[in-house]
Amino acid sequence: MRRRAYVDALCAQASVSYTTSRLEVIIQRVAQTIGDSRPPSASSLYRWHRALVKNPDDLRVLIPRFDARGGHGHRMSDEILALLDDVISRLYLTLQRRPMTSVMEALRIRVAQENTTRSSNRQLTLPSYATIKRYIRSLPKYDVDLARYGREYARKKYRHSSISPLATYLLERVEIDHTPLNLFVIDEETFLALGRPYVTWMIDCYSRMILGFYISFAPPSIDAVFRCMKHGFENKRYAREHYPDINHDWPCYGIPKLVVVDNGLEFHSKDLRRATFELKIDYQFCPPRTPWFKPIVERSLRSLAEQFAHLMPGTSFANWFDRYGYDPLKEGVVTMPELVHALHVWIIDVYAQTYHRGIKQTPYAAWKKGEELCTPRKIATERLTLALSQQANRVLGHAGIELHGLRYNNEDMLVLRKQLGHRLKIQVRFDPEDLGLVNVLHPLTKEPIPVPCLTPEYANGLRLYQHQLIQKAIRREGLRVTDPLALAKAKQHMQDIVGNLLRSNKLNDRKKGAKAKGSNSSLKTLHPRPYTLPETNWDAPFMPDIPPAELAVITLDREDSHE
């Protein structure tokens, strides 16, 4: 508009003259009229008017072209440009990620070598460091990161993300993942740090409610996945019973429609594929090394670290640079039962009751509203336990079934052999947390048949990992596996070893001891079955047949109850 005011004043003259004196008179008059403190020169007005004369129907020619100012591209010769591209490809665009100064030094050497073969009037001029720096920064950013940091780095840095996967009802989409918990746990007896446990996490994408979890010192495995799924699928009425200080309930339960996982080896196991098929659950893998394909569980694990683990004593922080002199091995005071108790409080009373920006309400309220739209699919506990058990194929013979070096047999197996043959190929379901009993699926009806171990004094309550340690010790000592006395001695020896590992000065040994001990978030581990008193007349002398140590505990409980 400013330029048009000057051009219109020039066009209003009876005869257009481009003399400097006449143009300056017009410029001064227009500048006073529009209040222009910096009027243009006569040559500028001439250029504006000539541009409008050439394009009388397009006033856009008066728009200032600030984008056309300055230089356009580099001014290096083709020879220098070829040498620079060669040096950049050999030194800068490599995984060694050399600095730009190395490019300048190498180019100086190449130019000097090239000038030795040229005449004095054809010498090449070395560009400045600023010119080389600008040229390198003008290269495509993706190509530079791809060459200097690799394909995975470039793919993650320049990934294209949309909105999170949408779910329209409860349990339509569930995501599962593992992560090391940023918290050091101590042993309940020795009070020494055992290390950082692993947590398996399950979340509902519709309500953002945490469905279940499992904590253990064992690395991620199919057993951890099964126990997390069982915890998430079952009703959680136990929370108010075991933890009366919790103010809200945990209403999450039910079988989901879709389970989304990453490409961990445990998620590719045949047992998990078989379990999801039996429970009628769709099973979906994310592409390799693409955590943003399951963003909801990844973000919830970040909340677990920042809002829970980092606030607890003994936290290891997400990065060891953040510790700044803080020693989690010395500050850790959290035992496994205390950790599970605090995690229940955080999930039920904090996380579920906090406003969530993604769903514009609290996860607890979203779950309650979702229950009004659809009822989660239930399943009997016995069937769920059977489906979430590990499976093995064995041959049933007169000696029964051999599994993990242990024999299982009873009268039901004899009836089965008389009906279908003396040697049968059968499917066995077992729990790695207790090798005392297995379930044999009937070849025709697929109904489970419980079969006990022939050495119950050894196998009852024995974990698979403990049994593998015992077998390893037996093989090393050259003993017979079928010797019950050797098994009993090895079991006692393993317990001694675990005790020594828990008291070791090395953190790695203490973590192995916690794994062998079976320290996890299982309720039967954290809350053993309490001792129930027999019906007794309190007015009569109280002399039950109980060991003195237990009698002292019971007497104290009796006095506390009277008080």
Automatic annotation (TrEMBL):
Gene3D superfamilies: Ribonuclease H-like superfamily/Ribonuclease H (3.30.420.10)
Pfam (any one): Mu-transpos_C
Disordered as annotated region, ranges: 508-544
Integrase catalytic domain location: 161-371
InterPro entries, alphabetized: Integrase_cat-core, RNaseH-like_sf, RNaseH_sf, Transposase-like_Mu_C
Domain of life the protein comes from: Bacteria
Protein name: DDE-type integrase/transposase/recombinase
